[in-house]
Amino acid sequence: MRKPLEVxxxxxxxxxxxHPTPVATDSQIKALRHNHRLYRSPHENTPLTxxxxxxxxxxxxxxxxxxxxxxxxEVDWDPASKQEYTCDSESALKPPLHQCLPDPIVYxxxxxxxxxxxxxxxxxxxxxxVPPQRWLHSLEHGGIVFLYHPCADxxxxxxxREIAKGCLYKHIITPNKNLSLDTPYAALAWGxxxxxxxxxxxxxxxxxxxxxxxxxEGHVNADGQYSKALRVPATHQLYExxxxxxxxxxxxxxxxxxxxxxxxxxxxxxxxxxxxxxKSSSDRYFSSVSDIVNRIAADSARRRxxxxxESAKLNRNIQKLITAFRKFQQ
Length: 330
Prior knowledge:
This protein has about 325 residues and is an alpha+beta fold.
């Protein structure tokens, strides 16, 4: 007696030969499913009689009774639709509306990166928990929000924490159960997110340098007012405010070519490696004293330039007021 699979293949071959456009009746499909357990409807609750983890359905065999990569494609996706791969620039970023309490704010995404939020943003730092209704406002101000699943690896969380503290003042660190355990770590900016299965320092740093301070109101540097469950407030490492040049200035690469091995230098003289281990580094704060001097000089130059621009703007406004007053007197 031939084996069930061989019988099935013979029946399939006969159908293909006698039907140029293969069309099977419901009874034929049920017979194949019932007799040989090769195909099974997801609505059938009868247990499979095979130990094959794929349910007895072989891979790589095109068959119109199961999957020929051409029939019933609209079940998964309508090929005529362009919605799934088209970005609507007008609706890609949701408007940053300020919504008052007690009105609830509900998001369509598990991890939103734009949309309505509360008028008072959170103080920067690490929290036991802070809801998205608050930290979305931080993203709008150009901050970076670092999320981790509560069940994530503690060493990986410590690594993410030290990168956040070493890169910028405007950061929020909080657990979030909406993250998948497949990607339990995330870095968020306004309109952007980086989901990670494990913390890769070089990717996180690149994300920060590309997207930090570029929110809808990235120029706002003031700290927030919301502080419920704030665990560790953010501190300024060297500069009074974040700038593109100062991003991740507390991080240095360790090793010659290993871009994923980073060290975070703290003010207490300790160095935290990318593995979360603490090393003695009393003799190093930055790579050199000249680096500190150069950074301070560059920051001072930027501040002078900004003050000059504000002074010129103020003078122009004064001249406009004087002109308007003279016209009024006439």
